[in-house]
Write a structure and sequence with these properties.
It is built from two helices and five strands. The protein is an alpha+beta fold. The chain has one domain (4-82). The protein is globular and about 45 Å long. The chain has a three-stranded antiparallel β-sheet with strand order 3-4-5, with no helix packed on it. The chain has a two-stranded antiparallel sheet with strand order 1-2.
Length: 99
């Protein structure tokens, strides 16, 4: 569990980043900056989504499309902000029988 998410641009390895290693938003809103967004809970305007060409349908690895979208936004100068108060839960299964 962590508050931020980071991608190493040399190896493309992803990992959680603790809150104290993230930079506070200059707006002093209690939000933090991060070049990667976490796809289970994010908001984006339709116009920005279209400007970034959305999520890449050609990504072959499951779960990386959100990292790609956040990185594109960040590299093009759009803030990717993290709310450390947000909580997301997952119910893990040992197998997927309903697909």
């Amino acid at each position: 569990m962590g508050q931020g998410y980071v991608t190493d641009l040399l190896t493309f390895q992803c990992s959680w980043k603790p809150l104290h290693e993230l930079r506070s938003s200059p707006l002093n809103t209690g939000l933090y900056e991060s070049p990667a967004l976490i796809g289970c809970a994010f908001a984006i305007s339709r116009s920005l989504y279209e400007k970034l060409w959305g999520q890449d349908p050609g990504i072959a690895d499951w779960g990386c499309e959100d990292i790609d979208l956040g990185l594109k936004a960040w590299l093009l100068g759009h803030p990717v902000l993290l709310d450390p108060q947000a909580v997301a839960g997952h119910r893990f299964q040992s197998s997927f029988t309903n697909y």
